[in-house]
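User: Hi! I'm working on a homework problem where we have to compare a predicted structure to a textbook description. Could you give me the structure for the chain below?
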Amino acid sequence: MNTESAAVLSGQAETSVWKRMRARLWKDRYLLLLGLPGLAYFLVYKYAPMFGLYLAFIDFNPFQGIFNSEWVGLEHFRRIFEDTEVVKVLWNTLYLSFLQIAFAFPMPILMALMLNEVRNQVYKRVIQSIIYLPHFLSWVVVVGIWIIFFRGEGLVNIFLRDSLGWETIPFMTDPSYFKPMIITQVIWKEAGWGTIIFLAALAGVNPSLYEAAVMDGASRMRQIWHITLPAIRSTIVIMLILRLGTVLDSGFEQVFLMLNPFNEETQNVLDTFVFFKGIQQADYSFATAVGMFKGVVGLVLVMAANQLAKKFGEEGVY
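Assistant: Happy to help. Predicted structure tokens:
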């Protein structure tokens, strides 16, 4: 076969591929249209803002503009490790995130296991609806409820003082209560909603496994340990990997609303630190560098956790 014939055949093959692709796109046009809003969301709010990462490598001056500001390379990233305030904020962020992983992450799993044991479907749906509701409240509302209950003259202190004779406890101003209250809020607001994924995984467990276990005389706890938990192990691993990706993301809105002049100096986290530096102090380049550093660390943790999960025989995220 000469070169000209080969080129003709190659062109015909490419034309055939494009025809099949156009036919497939036209066939699935309505599904693709449904996906356009999601695609537009990621393009506008996730990918387009990445252009702003350029600020991390320059000494941005609003009067000179982005492209006329001085290029400083990795100078702002060096400041991250030299600034004692950043080190303290980084430690606060890591400590708070691992507390959430240790206490808040297992709660949806535990609640899903308990709901899975409920046989009365009406009662089960009522309980599910009740524990889902806090998820739909904004953090402004949640923190507002917490302030009403736990402030100096709040309902909790009134009960402790009038019923038990205790002194007023400064829940909202004492820094030692800050992290426990953050964890409690996260559990109350998100634990119920987090059960959806695990209940969906539990719905796929073969009922014959439980029947066989009952025939063998296994107790309910034995069934949970040897059937239920192994069935959702892959889901737990995937959710843990995704959670590790946000280990430096402590939730800006919640922490910002809980901060006050009494605990701000000791309980600041990376998200609020970036806000104070970038918006209030107009140190845009350094704040961008800190935010970029946070994203890179999250990416590395996800990749490392994913590889570790594969070594233990799990599927992982990718």
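For your comparison, note the following. The CA atoms of residues 122 and 128 lie 10 Å apart. The chain has a mean pLDDT of 84. Good luck with the assignment!
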